[in-house]
Amino acid sequence: xxxxxxxxxxxxxxLPTYIIFSQCKYYDKLxxxxxxxxxxxxxxxxxxxxxxxxxxxxxxxxxxxRPMDLAPSNIDEIKSNLEALLSEKIGKDFVDKLSFKxxxxxxxxxxxxxxxxxxxxxxxxxxxxxxxxxxxxxIKDVKYCVGxxxxxxxxxxxxxxxxxxxxxxxxxxxxxxxxxxxxxxxxGPSIEPIESVSFEFDPNxxxxxxxxxxxxxxxxxxxxxxxxxxIEARDASQVVAYRRTVYIK
Length: 249
Known about the structure:
Shape: globular
Number of helices: 4
Order of helices and strands: HEEEEEHHEEEHEEEE
Strand content: 25-35%
Number of domains: 2
Radius of gyration: 23 Å
Structural class: alpha+beta
């Protein structure tokens, strides 16, 4: 009986160690990919934003985002309708990986309340009634920003940056951050030290890919070069490595 207890205790103490070392060191290089692109549709509208993690000031007033319980009563229905429509367009598997963050709503009849706001309200640049903010999370800890604009009739008017073809939506579940780094290192050109790793969308090929960017160690005034590697999210054998430049003033 004593022997059994000793074995159990040994396993108990070893387990946290395994969890700690199961992630590679490059997770601190992981950045959020994508772009909500709200500036093109709603940032210039007279809007209030309602968020699941709204902040609150010391004096009790909500700023930047308002809590979801202050949103219009029909917003849950609008959100459900949107996600049902998305399931038809991009597939339920992808919709299940969407994490709702917030929604911005245009209040056309309250323009006078936003006279001191920045960016300045400009109705000529205001294109939408509702703008939904989501994070697409293909695997744990990896996030890609998704912004979706709806008009007054709750129709999607923004481009959906998701694969249209069903085969391009079958992502390689074996591609973790650690695996992506491993592939990038074997691709050919030096990629270390690594600046960042992100999950992105190629609007031309209409599919997701991973980006590993090399850090510029000694940045100089003028043109600086660095390596960058792209790995297809559905087929890790498709790897492109190339040299990029950035101008530093």
